[in-house]
Amino acid sequence: MITVSMDTWRTHLSLSVRDNDRPGLQHNLHRLLTTEVARLDALASRFREDSELSAVNRGAGEWVDVSWRFVTVLTACLDAARATGGLVDPTLGQAIKAAGYDHWARQNTQTDPRRHRGAWRQVGIRPGPSGAQVLIPAGTALDLGSVAKGWLADRLATTVRRAGHDVMANMGGDIRVMASQPWTVWSDPELPGVTASPADLTDAAIATSGIGHRHWEGGHHIIDPRTGAPAVTPWHSVSVVAATAAQANAAATAAVILADDAPTWLDRQGLDARLVSRTHITSTGRWPSEVAA
Amino acid sequence: MSKTPRIIAATASAALLAGIGGASAVLAVDTVMADDEQATTQVTADETLPAPQDDRTTVYQEPQDDDDDHDDDEGGQITPAPPTTSFQGNNGGQSKQNTSKSS
Fold first, then answer.
1. Does any domain span residue A138?
2. Which of A119, A120, A193, A213 has its CA 20 to 30 A from that of A142?
3. ipTM of this model?
4. Taking CB atoms and an 8 Å cutoff, what residues of chain A touch B91?
5. A224 is in which domain, residue-wise?
């Protein structure tokens, strides 16, 4: 087993292959990981004044020049919005900021996010003079954070798999496996008294969303687009297994927002999920039933 | 009525994409290589990795009007894991690298 890792975005990122070390492989894996993380950061960080995302947010209401790679990430996030009926909305940046979520690079003034429900449908994309151009509605801001990590896990795993390796990419808990033999991954809600639960994946992904990790007095980072405020939910964490990490991330976040309606929504989509509250554990699909300790 | 974006063309050339004009929906393409990447990421000749591919890029998406009639249930496009997935935990103990948690 070869694993390379780094700590950034206030989380842990790793890339593992089932292989004996060969000359250059570990070095190349590390280079791939650090290069792609740096590229995504330059595209989509809301903490950097010079990111393409910050430029789009400063120019809300106007067409802004971006790279095609930025469009690729944005497209994954718009796909997530479409697949969740708008529950995972990349245009909720202002709502996250209004909810008190830490530092942002210079953006537009705050507005009432409820006025912009469904603003993801009003995002425009077109070719520009030297790349692409993106338009977001005035008064909104993009936040691609959660789905982008899943997108990166899928991108890294696909790249390494093309070289013939069994691979697992873990981008802060958004895990994509592409392997010839099953690879065990674990759902850990990080809740006292609740143990981690395993899943064996070959070509699949797992992601966990919850309100326990990034929270502060009076709020957390998962915004319900129907209210523009932090979601009111019984779920401490939701883990979802899906075909890709971007999709698993979107489904897990949507499930947190859907609260008591989440198990029905997940079942309807045929998704395997583990939903953990402070009082009980619920599962859907093939995920085994269990009881809280 | 739901307005699901349509794919109206596909190509593998970023240069060609930039020359397309006048479309009014979503355009998806397969395998657009990033223009600043080489064919391989190579440090030594012993073990190389291919360059990542931007394998799906929307080229045109027309902003939809705020007052369009939308169907909030148009989702359901999340693909479940394949049948090879199981929940036994037979292939490895828990570690930092294989654990999914909220972050």
1. no
2. A213
3. 0.87
4. 181-184, 200
5. 178-284
